[in-house]
Amino acid sequence: xxxxxxxxxxxxxxxxxxxxxxxxxxxxxxxxxxxxxxxxxxxxxxxxxxxxxxxxxxxxxxxxxxxxxxxxxxxxxxxxxxxxxxxxxxx
Length: 91
What we know:
By secondary structure, this protein is an all-alpha fold. The protein has a domain at 28-87. 78% of the residues lie in helices and 0% in strands. It contains five helices and no strands.
């Protein structure tokens, strides 16, 4: 995971995602990892994957702490709605 963070900071998104996926295979429930992956996909404009990982993060965070941080949850939900406008094909 730390290699993924390092590549993310260097804006080398493909490498960051490679290492994040390696870490995800070892621990698919790591909340920070899920959130970081969402952010990298978001930054790399891979919106469908960003939406998926933001959703996974919210789902797992809610399972761990249902009360959670309501402000953070609302911000992430708002970001998902915003991304949906770009991710869904227009008719």
